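Risk register update: the risk of archive-format incompatibility is retired. Evidence:
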Amino acid sequence: MFNDLQEINRRPAPWERYTADQLWTDPWVSGQMLAFHLDGTNAIASRSSEFIGRATGWMAGRFGLGPGKRVADFGCGPGLYAQGLATTGAAVTGVDFSPRSIAYAQKQAASLGLEIDYRCENYLEFTGEARFDLITLIYGDLCALSPTQRAKLLKIFRELLRPGGALLLDVFSLARFRGLGESAGYEFCFGEGFWASEPHYVFQNSFKYEPQNLALDKYTIVLPGERREIFNWLQHFTPEDLKSEMVAGGFDLVDTLGSVAGDAYDSEADEFAMVLTAA
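Archived output:
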């Protein structure tokens, strides 16, 4: 027992494991995540409905979206942004590796009469012949990827953009990282919880890695005869650090913003956004 608890509370090496697929593809957990996505009043999985509407409206104007334009939303989830972008008349592709989210997005698009090309696949493996005028990566998706994964994704983006096309993404800021702390705790759930339908224990450890501006929320879920681990990594950036990484990945900075809705940059906010073009 002692050795088990020691392992549960061990500080992993930075980017030691990548478990995002477990969070988004597990039949039970993905259902909980979809419910959070669709609750337009909170920002647990998606931002509020008000923000998403404002963001898609701003994108349509900023990037001149309409018939003849092509847009790809990477990490599209249940299609909340893709739907709004498709109403401009642009051809929209949504990519996500959650079967539950993609199934919901496809059903919604059909009910709204929107022709959106949804792909259920890992966007780190995405290939295709289409070239896009705008690629979006929203709600800190870049922050959940290791440096190696980020470099791979930027290469994919560079190959997919049309000449003059733009990449729009947002990330978590150093201001947010400074406000984080380390903690450890556990709880018992009698059943029908976030992580499982049956009774289970949940151990949560939050770690900070100061030199890398990296945070980890590690969840260990203990069920009868089974133990699962979820590693939720979040890289935090300064605008200077993100610009350097983007330039190294073959992109030029166009603009630094406060959000993907076009808000002004705020150095004390938890996030910021960038518009970039392929160099």
